[in-house]
Amino acid sequence: MPSFLFVCVTCAQVVGVVMLVLLGYWTGNILGGFAWDGSSQEFNLHPLLMVIGLVYMYGQAIMVFRVFNKESKIVIKTMHLLTQIFGFICACIGLKAVFRNHNVNGIANMYSIHSWAGIVVFTLFTCQLLFGFLFFFFPKASESLRKSYLVVHRFFGIAIFVGAIAVACMGLLEKLGFQYPNDAEEPYSTLPTGAMIGNFLGLMICLFGGLVAFIVTHSDFKRVDEPVDEEVRPLTSSTSEMKAYQASEAAADTEQQ
Ligand code: HEM
C-alpha cells in the first residue's frame, strides 16, 4: 500500500501540474501570449514567471527534504539550492517584465498593495536564499550557529512561501479587475470564461500551497538523520591492509548469508 507521504506528494504534484497548465493557458491564450516589447504581452510574462518561480519551484524546493528523505544530505541540499536559484531567475525576469511594461507605457510603479507586498516577499526570498547559502553551503558557520539559524530559516521558509501565494492571488485579482472592468461588455461580475479560469488558477495556487505546507509541517514526514553518513572503515593508507580488510568483510558477509 502506498504510504501517506506518497499520496500527499502525488496530490501536490498533480495539483502543481494543473496549476501550471491553467497558468500557461490563461497567460498564453486568454491574456494574449508573450513578447518582449513593452506591450501587454510582455506583462503576461510577469504572472507566468512569478508563479513558476515563487510558487511552483519554491514549493518543489521546500518539498525535496521530505520527498527524497533517504538520499544523502548534500544531494538534497544541492537540489534545494538549485531549484531555488532557478525560481529566483524566473522571478527576476518576471519582475523586469512588469517594470519594463510600466515604464514603456508611462504607468506608475509600486502603487498597489500587490506591488508593495510583492517586493517584500521577493526581498525576503532573496535574503533567505543568500543566508541559506552562507550558513549551510559555505563551510564557515559553526555547528551551533547553523543550528540556531536553522530555526529561523525554517520559519521564514514557510512564511515567505505563504506570502508568495497571497501576493500571487492579489495580483490575479488585480489583473482580473483590469481585464474585465465594470464598463466592459463582459464585466468581472458576469464571470466570463477568462475570469473563471483566472479564479480556478487562484484556487489551484492556494491548494498547491496548502498541500506543500501540510507535507513540510507534518511531523511524521520529517527526515530522520543518520548520525554518521559514511560507512565505518579502518583508517589506513596502505593498499595491502585495505585489501585484507575488504577480504575479511567479504568473508563475513558470505558467512552471514
Ligand atoms: C508571488 C508572485 C508575484 C510577485 C512577487 C509580484 C510582484 C509585483 C510587483 C513588485 C509589481 C510592481 C511592478 C511595478 O510597479 O512596475 C507587480 C505588478 C503587477 N502584478 Fe505582480 N507579482 C506576483 C505575481 C503576480 C500574479 C500571479 C499576477 C496575476 C496576473 C500579478 C499581477 C500584477 C499586476 C496586474 C501588476 C501591475 C499593477 C501593480 O503594480 O499592482 N502579479 N507585481
Model description:
By secondary structure, the chain is mostly helical. It has one domain (4-256): Four Helix Bundle (Hemerythrin (Met), subunit A). Helix content is 74%, strand content 0%. The protein contains eight helices and no strands. The protein has helices at residues 4-30, 40-43, 45-67, 73-104, 113-136, 143-179, 193-217, 239-256. Helix 3 (45-67) runs parallel beside helix 7 (193-217), helix 4 (73-104) runs antiparallel to helix 5 and helix 5 (113-136) packs antiparallel against helix 6 (143-179). The radius of gyration is 24 Å and the shape is globular. The two termini are 29 Å apart. It binds protoporphyrin IX containing FE (HEM). Protoporphyrin IX containing FE (HEM) binds at residues 46-47, 50-51, 54, 95, 98-99, 102, 109-110, 112, 114-115, 118-119, 121-122, 164, 167-168, 171-172, 174-175.
Summarize the structure.
The protein is mainly α and 257 residues long. The chain has 8 helices and no strands.
Report the bound ligands by name, code or SMILES. Answer: protoporphyrin IX containing FE
Overall helicity = over 70%
Low-confidence stretches: 226-239, 252-257
Give the CA-based shape.
globular
Question: Tally of extended strands?
Answer: 0
CATH arch. level architecture: Up-down Bundle
- CATH top level assignment: Mainly Alpha
Which series of helices and strands comes N to C? HHHHHHHH
Mean of the pLDDT scores? 90
